[in-house]
């Protein structure tokens, strides 16, 4: 059986279930280990005075940093490791204490006293907009004269709504272990999506060359974007402790500290007006998408960029003006979270579609179909990149058929007529999600492949494993490249010492980038091996084939063959290298930031969904009864893994849109710092009738690895159908997110029912 395309289990499935999989905190602790704990600000804004530790406590502050007190991913210096002068958010790290045990460290941290003269915090997005508290200049994507086209349109609609943030709630909180070695070297084990940035930021904070800071990560216990930039400062803090004490230091954030001190999904505020005609065709749209970036830039420019490039989603609007604002507030700095601004971006058109449906009396489904990008509408986005209109329509049509739209509408109407308090509703959604990093230089990857003389293979690549199944996919690619069974390929920990200068594993590009890099490495070794076999058998190297663990002459009537292992051994005898690096950079992508035009994505991943809910109008509670999803995965590398990603992402999206509510009090203190106050969805929130399908016969048209497509983030957005279903069930005009029972009740009251 061919390795690529097989529904193989996650390489650590059994180890995850039995507890044998080792996460950073499971590694044997090195002798002399010190445990670290952070001292976090109890106020959101203020002036920092003296910081005092009880006698005998070893405390590090900004004054102890030998390099730069700068953990900003941009290197712009707008985010310190430890606060100095001004406190900018509740939960901001002020100092770190070190102790022999973790409990002692936590107790000592709690006993540290920081003098802070409080200042009024800026918390509210509207107020931040009014005060023009921007983290960066507004970004605008525009085509045509939207304002004039709205004035000229036969009908208009307008809206305003909000979407909340989201806590990553990875099960393994942020952790790093730093071990000092010879000559000032500090080896870091980090639960990170971005080992190279851990290396860079630790280097910056310590004033050390990168070559002295090897960083490794075998796996994360979940990340979801929360370990793209935030893992770096946690690791830098541990490295600082190791540098100063000369002893190994482990920093593992308790859940409460993790939730207080690390960034979340950006909350957004939306305002829009649109013009349409009586057929539901949207002619023009003006919208502002305002993101709460928190106190520093972090990755906010990229998040706003993605929200803008996804604000029209898979729809065409001829005249548009989309403005993205990044607001600075006294909140923790918001960061990457599955979808990276895409989920926030695609919400906009949902509100527009509902507004146009109300104005015209059409169904939201009819308005969708009327406005899909691609013939007869324009296929290009306002920034100039073409969408594949046929794939949008195929995913949609297949999902609509799966969902049985017309029959279900009739059933739901009958149910609602028979129930005084319960209301069922059906909602839909369609998606085009761009794949590639918005930052061009991040679209590169490296890999290292060794073949040993017994024919076993060791694979290392720049991607990190966070549960998404990247390692098994890349191993499948390598097994396929060598024509060997998957169990010949050994998956190893990500390490900056083996594959340097990597991008984060993010933007769903892990298997695209690292799959290609590993394929290129494997092809380099295979080419040399083929030449050895060709010389042995006196045939051209092109006639050597690798399949089913064997190497053979692929010519009719020629039966010469040997095992892959025999050839590997032969290569060694012939003094031929069995090791190679592989490299890949995504072709064709480009962006002009001045014009806000270009083709920033290598391709788009498409999808569609329907969800049915039942709402209790007395309590505002709901359940998702059924979901039908169609997700484009190209020619899937591994349909079992992809299905898991689709189901998990959908439920995580449900959480963001319905039950996960972050709460800051009027003084800017985060009050949702644990599972008792912050509700993530549980297994019983997943739709009991959950129909997931990969779009069939849809190999990527672009030269992706084996024509597969990314899957990590896109299906999170398919949960948007739940929002539409809740609005359909309740008949309310506006339902801010997350649509908690309280919000549903308030919306019902506003509607006067
Ligand atoms: N799946 C699991 N189990 N755990 C995770 O942390 N992160 C998601 C997604 N799926 C995540 C996950 C996010 S935010 C991204 S960008 C992708 O995985 C990254 O991995 P990939 O590029 O290999 O798909
Ligand atoms: N997605 C996720 N992380 C990123 C991106 C992106 O598009 N750009 C930079 N970091
Ligand atoms: Mo994912 S938000 O790109 O780490």
From TrEMBL:
One function term, GO molecular function aspect: xanthine dehydrogenase activity
EC number: 1.17.1.4
Record-annotated Aldehyde oxidase/xanthine dehydrogenase a/b hammerhead domain positions: 18-120
InterPro entries cross-referenced by the UniProt entry: Ald_Oxase/Xan_DH_a/b, Ald_Oxase/Xan_DH_a/b_sf, Ald_Oxase/xanthine_DH-like, AldOxase/xan_DH_MoCoBD1, AldOxase/xan_DH_MoCoBD2, AldOxase/xan_DH_Mopterin-bd_sf, Xanthine_DH_Mopterin-bd_su
SMART domains: Ald_Xan_dh_C
Keywords on record: Molybdenum, Oxidoreductase
Protein name as it appears in the record: Xanthine dehydrogenase molybdopterin binding subunit
Species whose genome carries this gene: Roseomonas nitratireducens
Protein encoded by which gene: xdhB
């Amino acid at each position: 059986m061919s390795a690529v395309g097989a529904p193989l289990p996650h390489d650590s499935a059994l180890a995850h279930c039995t507890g044998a999989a080792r996460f950073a905190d499971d590694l044997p602790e090195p002798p002399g280990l010190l445990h670290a704990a952070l001292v976090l600000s109890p106020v959101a804004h203020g002036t920092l005075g003296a910081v005092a530790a009880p006698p005998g406590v070893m405390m590090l502050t900004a004054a102890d940093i030998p390099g730069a007190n700068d953990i900003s991913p941009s290197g712009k210096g707008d985010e310190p490791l430890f606060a100095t002068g001004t406190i900018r958010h509740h939960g901001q790290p002020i100092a770190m204490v070190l102790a022999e045990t973790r409990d002692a460290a936590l107790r000592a941290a709690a006993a540290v006293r920081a003098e802070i003269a409080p200042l009024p915090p800026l918390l509210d997005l509207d107020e931040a907009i009014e005060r023009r508290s921007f983290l960066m200049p507004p970004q605008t994507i525009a085509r045509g004269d939207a304002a004039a086209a709205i004035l000229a349109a036969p009908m208009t609609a307008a809206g305003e709504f909000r979407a909340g943030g989201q806590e990553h709630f990875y099960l393994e909180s942020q952790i790093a272990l730093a071990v000092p070695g010879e000559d000032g070297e500090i080896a870091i084990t980090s639960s990170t999506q971005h080992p190279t940035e851990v290396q860079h930021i630790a280097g910056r904070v310590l004033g050390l060359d990168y070559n002295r800071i090897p960083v490794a990560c075998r796996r994360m216990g979940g990340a979801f974007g929360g370990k793209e930039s935030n893992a770096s400062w946690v690791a830098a803090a541990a490295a600082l402790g190791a540098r100063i004490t000369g002893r190994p230091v482990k920093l593992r954030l308790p859940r409460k500290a993790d939730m207080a001190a690390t960034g979340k999904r950006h909350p957004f505020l939306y305002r829009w007006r649109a013009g349409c005609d009586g057929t539901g065709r949207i002619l023009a749209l003006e919208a502002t998408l305002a993101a709460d970036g928190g106190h520093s830039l972090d990755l906010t420019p990229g998040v706003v960029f993605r929200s803008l490039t996804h604000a029209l989603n898979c729809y065409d609007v001829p005249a548009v003006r989309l403005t993205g604002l990044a607001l600075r507030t006294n909140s923790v700095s918001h960061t990457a979270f599955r979808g990276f601004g895409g989920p926030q971006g695609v919400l906009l058109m949902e509100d527009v579609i509902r507004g146009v449906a109300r104005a015209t009396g059409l169904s939201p489904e009819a308005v969708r179909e009327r406005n899909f990008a691609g013939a007869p509408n324009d296929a290009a986005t306002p920034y100039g990149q073409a969408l594949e209109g046929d794939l949008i329509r195929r995913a949609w049509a297949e999902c609509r058929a799966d969902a049985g739209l017309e029959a279900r509408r009739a059933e739901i109407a009958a149910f609602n007529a028979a129930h005084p308090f319960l209301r069922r509703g059906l909602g839909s959604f369609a998606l085009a999600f761009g794949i590639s990093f918005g930052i061009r230089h991040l679209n590169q990857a490296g890999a290292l492949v060794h073949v040993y003389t017994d024919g076993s293979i060791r694979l290392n690549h720049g991607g990190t494993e966070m549960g998404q199944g990247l390692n098994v996919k890349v191993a499948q690619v390598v097994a396929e490249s060598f024509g060997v069974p998957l169990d010949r390929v050994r998956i190893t920990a990500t390490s900056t010492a083996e594959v340097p200068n990597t991008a984060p594993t993010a933007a769903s590009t892990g298997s695209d980038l690292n799959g290609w890099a590993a394929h290129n490495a494997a092809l380099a070794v295979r080419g040399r091996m083929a030449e050895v076999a060709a010389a042995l058998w006196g045939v051209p190297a092109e006639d050597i084939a690798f399949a089913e663990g064997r190497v053979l002459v692929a010519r009719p009537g020629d039966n010469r063959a040997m095992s892959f292992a025999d050839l590997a051994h032969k290569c060694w005898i012939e003094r031929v290298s069995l090791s190679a690096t592989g490299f890949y950079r995504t072709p064709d992508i480009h962006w002009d930031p001045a014009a806000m035009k270009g083709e920033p994505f290598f391709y788009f991943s498409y999808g569609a969904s329907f969800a049915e809910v039942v709402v209790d109008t007395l309590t505002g509670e709901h359940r998702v009864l059924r979901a039908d999803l169609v997700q484009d995965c190209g020619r899937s590398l591994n349909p079992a893994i992809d299905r898991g990603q689709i189901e998990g992402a959908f439920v995580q999206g449900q959480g963001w849109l319905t039950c996960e509510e972050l709460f800051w009090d009027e003084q800017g203190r985060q009050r949702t710092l644990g599972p008792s106050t912050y509700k993530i969805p549980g297994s019983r929130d997943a739709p009991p009738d959950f129909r997931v399908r990969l779009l069939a016969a849809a190999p990527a048209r672009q030269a992706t690895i084996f024509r597969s497509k990314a899957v990590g983030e896109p299906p999170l957005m398919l949960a948007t159908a739940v929002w539409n279903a809740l609005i359909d069930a309740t008949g309310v005009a506006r339902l801010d997110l997350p649509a908690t029972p309280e919000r549903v009740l308030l919306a019902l009251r506003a509607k006067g029912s």
